[in-house]
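[Q] Does anyone have a clean C-alpha cell version of this?
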Amino acid sequence: MKIVERVKALLGRDAVLEDTGAPDGLPRVAPASPDAVALLLGTAREEGWRVRVEGAGTWMPADAAADLALTTRRLDRVPSIQPQDLAATAEAGIGCDQLRQQLADRGAWLALDPPGLAGRTLGSVVATATAGPLRHGFGAVRDHLVGVTFVTGDGRLVQSGGRVMKNVAGYDLTKLQAGGFGAFGVIVLVHLRLRALPRVDQTLVLEGSREDLSRVADDITAAGLTLAALELFSPALARRDRWVLAVRLAGSAALVGAEEAGLRSATGGQFSALRADEAHAFWMRAAEAFATRPVTFRVGGLPDSSDDLLDLIQHQVGDEWVSASPGAGTLRWTGETTVDRLRRLRRTLAAQEVPLTVERAAWPLRRAVGHFGAYREGVGPLVAGLRHTFDPGNAIAVAVESEDRAG
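[A] Here you go.
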C-alpha cells in the first residue's frame, strides 16, 4: 500500500493535504490531534518511514530528505488561557501572531519576539529556541515554558513533568525540547508562563559607531535599569546609515517613565524615542530580515563578551547582517556562508566553550554542519544516546550534529 493511502486509512482522507504545490512532491500530512501525531509516528517507526516535521514553513527550509512531511498546521487551538494565573496551554501549530492576539484580548502577554516572519508557529519557536531581543529582560524561550507535551519518534505521547521515561528519569524534558530542533520528538502542546500585558511599550534608539554604542551599552548595564530589550543592530539590519543601539521599555506608565529617566541620566539624554508605529516597524523589519537570507545562526557567550564575539564574526564571516544583545551575551548573524567557514568558526568558538547554533539553512548545509554540533568533549555520545531513547528508529529527519561530527 502506498504511503498516502496508508496514512488516509489511519487518519482519514482529510489528513493528507492535496495540491500544496511543494516542489519536492512529498505527501504532507496534517494530523488534527496529538493522538493522531502519535499514531502517525508509531506507524512510521513500524514501516521504516522517514518523517520531516514542519510548522508553517516560514522559518526552516522544508527540504530535509524524507518519505513524508508532518505539518502541525491543524494543531492550532488554545485549550486554556488563565489570565489570573498568568498561564496558558496552546497547540504547537498555532501562529504566534494569532496566539498573541488571543492573549492580549485577555490582558495577558507572552514576552517572546522570535526572529523570522510573522507567520511562525509556536512549536517552531520552542523547538528552535529562537528568542529575540526581549530575551534581555524576560529570559530565554525555556523561561517562558511550564512544560511541553511531545510525541517521540516511535509514537509515545509524553508530557514533561508527568510521565517519566525509562533512562531519562530526573532529566528536564522541557529544556530538552526547547532548542532540540525536533531531534527528541515532535512538540504538540506548549504550557506557557505569561505576563500581564504592558500598559506602556516604549522604544528609544541611538545611532553611532559600534565602538561608541558598545560603551553606551556598558553604561546602561552598569546603571542596573530594568529594560525589556537592549539590542545592537548593524546598519543594514537597522536600515540606518550607522549602527543602532535600541532600548525597549515595557510595563506600567510609572515604571516606564522612571526607567526612561534613568536611561537618559545614564547616557546623557542621547536617545530618541520612536512613535508606536515606528517602533513596531523597526523591530519587525529586523526580525523578518533573519528569514530572508540563506543562513542564520546564533552564538551564546557571556554578557561582557559581545565585543569580542562581534570582532570574531566580522573577521570570519562578516558583520553586515548581525545583532547582539550585550546584556545577555547573545549574537545572531544572517547572510551567505559555506560549510567550511561555519566549521572553522565553530571550532574557533569551541576553544572558548562558546556554542554556535545553526538556526536555519538549506538541508545540505544543515546535514553537513548540524544545528548545534558538539562544542564540548563528550557531548556527541550524550546526544546520540538521547536520540536513541526518544527516536529509536531514527524516524524523524533532523540534523542536530554534523555528518562527520567535526563541528
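[Q] Thanks! Anything notable?
[A] The chain is about 35% helix and 20% strand.
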